[in-house]
Amino acid sequence: MAERLGLERVSAGYGESVILDGTDLALQAGESLALLGRNGAGKTTLLKTIMGLTHLHGGTVRYDGRDLARDPPYKRSRAGIAWVPQERGMFPSLSVDEHLTTVARPGPCTIEHAYGLFPAIAARRDSPGNRLSGGEQQMLAIARALVMNPKVLLLDEPMEGLAPVIVQELKALLAKLIGEGGMTVVLVEQHARLALSLTARAAVLERGRIVHQAPSDQLIADQATLQRLVAVA
Ligand SMILES: Nc1ncnc2c1ncn2[C@@H]1O[C@H](COP(=O)(O)OP(=O)(O)OP(=O)(O)O)[C@@H](O)[C@H]1O
After folding, report:
1. Quick one: which of 41, 139, 156, 221 could link to 86 by a disulfide (CB 3.0–4.6 Å)?
2. Rounded CA separation 138/161 (Å)
3. C-alpha of residue 1 to centroid of ligand 1, in Å
4. Which residue numbers delimit the ABC transporter domain (predicted)?
């Protein structure tokens, strides 16, 4: 299978500070990866680097074989990389509907399909972004990424703060999306077991370096390594 996303000796950070330090990672089309690590390990920075939102000090980020160095974030997004940021990134002046219509692209996930997945935001389609609850903003951030029908979906702690019933629905949705194999998915998640149960592969970051990679089912069974690298209870 072809490489969809490739990081080669990537060093990146904020201004002069280097957070990712010589990171290598390759993901094929349709593959899923749990990106794990303790607080501050660099998980968000890695996703931001793929989106072009950090300062790349060295190395290469490739997408479908092309070096992305010259592409600003909007071009990466247009090329098929969608990001669900931790801070959700809603626009206060846009309605729920406008958040979706401005980015929707042809593909299996239509806006009506997204509303079907998240009825709570369907009921608020005319509400402005800043009137939504935290959970609703989170659902909208995920819906917004899905209606882009991306080739790569980067999710930064998408379950955080959601009600348990919605977490269950979202888990089922992610399992379906990953199972269909149409998208390459990178899932950053504090709950390592949850992320591992959904993905095929896992990578663990420590101080900006990938220190461990394994199939997810193997890592979930390796309590000692999980405890050592991610401090899982
Ligand atoms: N905008 C920024 N400017 C400077 N340093 C930053 C910035 N954002 C993050 N950092 C630093 O980069 C390092 C990695 O942070 P990052 O958010 O990538 O970690 P993380 O693994 O996603 O952690 P968490 O699980 O807490 O979200 C931390 O030391 C953090 O303080």
Report:
1. 156
2. 9
3. 33
4. 5-232
Model pTM score: 0.94
Q: Considering only CA atoms, which of 111, 121, 197, 216 is closest in space to residue 162?
A: 121
Query: Is residue 126 within 8 Å of 97, Cβ to Cβ?
Result: yes
Residues paired with 107 in a beta bridge? none
Mean pLDDT over the full length of the chain: 93
Ligand 1 touching residue 85 (CB < 6 A): no
Residue 37 CB–ligand 1 contact under 6 Å: yes
Ligand 1 pocket member 87 (CB < 6 A): no
Radius of gyration of the chain, Cα coordinates, nearest whole angstrom: 17
What's the 216 CA to ligand 1 centre distance in angstroms? 24
Q: What pLDDT digit, counting tens, does each position of 168-215 carry?
A: 888 998 998 899 888 999 999 988 999 999 999 999 999 999 999 999
- Choices 3.40.50.980, 3.40.50.300, 3.50.50.60, 3.30.1330.60: CATH for 3-80+150-230: 3.40.50.300
Domains of the chain, by residue range, sit at 3-80+150-230, 85-147
Quick: pLDDT tens for 83-94.
Answer: 999 887 788 889
Q: Which residue owns the Cα nearest ligand 1 atom 5?
A: 14
ipTM score for this prediction: 0.95
Residue 120 parent element (H or E): helix 119-122
Q: How far apart are CA 116 and CA 85, in angstroms?
A: 22
40 lines ligand 1 (CB under 6 A): yes
**112 CA from centroid of ligand 1 (Å):** 35
